[in-house]
Amino acid sequence: MQKAPPRNPYVPGRRVTGQMFYGREAELSRLRYLLQDSLHPHHVQIVGEIRSGKSSLIAEFLRRHGDVHVQFVLVPLDLSAHFRIGTAQDFFRQLVEYISQAVESRSEIDEQLREVTRHLLPPAGLPSLQRLHRFFDQLERACLRVLLVLDEFDYSIELFKLDEQAFKYLRHMADNFAPLTLVTSSRRSIFDIECDAGMSSNLAGVMPEHIYVSLLEPDAARLLCREPAQHEGVIWEHDVVELMVTLSGCHPCLIQRLARHLFFEARESPAVERIAMLTHAAPRIFGELFDDMERRLRKFGLWSAIVELVRSGDRFIEHADRDRLERFGYIVVDKDGHYRTFTPLLDHVVNVRADSRMISHVASAVLLKEQDGAFEQPETNPRVGDETTVASEAANPTEQVSTAAVMSPASAIPPARPNLGSVEGGAVVNDAANDRFDVAIVCALRTPELKKVLDTGTTPWRELDSEPDDPATYHGGFYTTLKGTVLRVVAAAPSQMGMPATAVLTAKMVRRFRPKLVAMVGIAAGVSGGGRGFGDILAPDCTFDYGAGKWSSVDNKLHFSPDPNPINIVPVLRSRLKDWELKGERLARIRERWQDQPADTVLRLHVGPLGSGAAVVSAQQPVATVRDHWRKLIGIEMEAYGAHLACQEVCNPPPMFLCMKSVCDFADPEKKDDWQHYAAYTAAQLCQVFLVEEWDRLFPR
Predict the structure, then answer these.
(1) Which domain, by its residues, includes 416?
(2) CA dist 402 → 105, 187, 378, 381, 460 (Å)
(3) Candidate from 166-170, 176-180, 195-199, 399-403 with smallest mean pLDDT
(4) Which of 208, 209, 599, 618 might form a disulfide with 671, Cβ 3.0–4.6 angstroms?
């Protein structure tokens, strides 16, 4: 009897729970805290771009935490599925009806509450506020709470035309009925929904807690690629998994679409055939997500305009087209007054669909070599970007060229927004030298500091093209914030340690890349005491040069009069860092992900003055001398003040300066290098996490 083929486990577009749910542990913990572990349950907005897993997050939370059924009367509703389309009054009648049915289904309610519930909804119209108050008062006496989940809340206006009065009615329910906890899920925040509709109902004001669902962490993305197939007895090779992760940009729905296609078409094929199939199918697979959107844009003659926006920015778009795109909701205005698409995912799809050759250059060969976990180009093959190779691919982009060089997954597709390079004639041309970056990261050492920075992010970093008048090497990468903002990040290290070399490099990066924020990331010597341990991150609110001052002779003895000229960081950054001193769960996750043995102390963040000097210190006396003048000193090192001063002096207004350096020793005779790699790792990881979570607050749109 012929064996049945394995079931395709990938289900893009559907809610996933259980063994198909990967990642999102931080979001689940946050949701549990806000709803169950805090003293009073909070109203919560879950915000994320299309198909990013918001509904799955809610479903997995309800599945994983069974005790929520005891604490709450659950009313999980999907506005796109559970409601009949109609007026605002129709919406609220259905909403109250669902709440009534859920409460009545609870066996433990008494007869009085059951009677109130049964008559909550009048024969016509909406229940009065007095009747609603009586209902929720009875719930409170019965020690019951209603957890009302409104998934796909964007449809509140699109399907039901909820006006300002309707939003005020909903706000009154959330603000005045103590036993009611409201959770919404939407692509945009309620504040943005209200603003776009010209409302001033302030529903957003009673829902200050947000959980942003963005891209998966790379490790979770790899699990989502690999594990479902493995449950069905199909093993994806490492090369195939890495290509899927890179092509998808760690977006869960794109991963599922790629994996579903590959599982169906090539589950028994060799790795090279799978890679070729992924390469040629990706544009079509991605395009399925936005078929309706593209059809609508083409119908109104706006497809070329949005392609131009993604590729070249808003300066080449006709004003009329720009206004129409904004009115349709496909583009928004950032804080600098520039237009961008509403989601990085749309940028990703537009790039792929507008030029399918951008992917066909990636993995069209049949020869792969892997060494030390990185893809290597065979020496006998043409160079990536060789004119003959590009010409042959451009002539027939769908033909598999067996002698072409294989690019690494890092080059598989230009990242979502903005690109490090442009495409001209099928070849990737790097034009980043004349463009701006959001963040510039400066390290004092190439190993281990810069190396650990280049391990961060969801996509591999690329070395930027060199400038003939600049010997420095720069690396470009991307971070994606919780709100989906894609940050361009450039990182570099000077040729030697010390303040002069660091100041020069920082000045060059500020002048060339015009970043909004400069981050100094690396290792430092901690000051003993204050609970500081190896790997703890030092984030100075003030940097100073402890070697600056005057030496004089007093009574035939040398006397030093310090003149440190301290520089403070901006108040908003200091305030955020002080808050992060208390966020132990973020630091605990960083410590747990270290692949070697971490320090035996709890990982902490310390905010305070950091001193910079000209020499490596391995004796306690110099530290004690500095500490005499700086009671709250957290550490000493050799570069931060130079970078901070360069930021202040090179341009006006200066970029924001952030420094995160982790403790690798305590500047004593026992100073060793044992903890340098762990310290560089914790500093780089926290810098990324901090920027991802705080960028939109530090630089609001």
Answers:
(1) 218-289+355-430
(2) 65, 43, 12, 10, 25
(3) 399-403
(4) 618
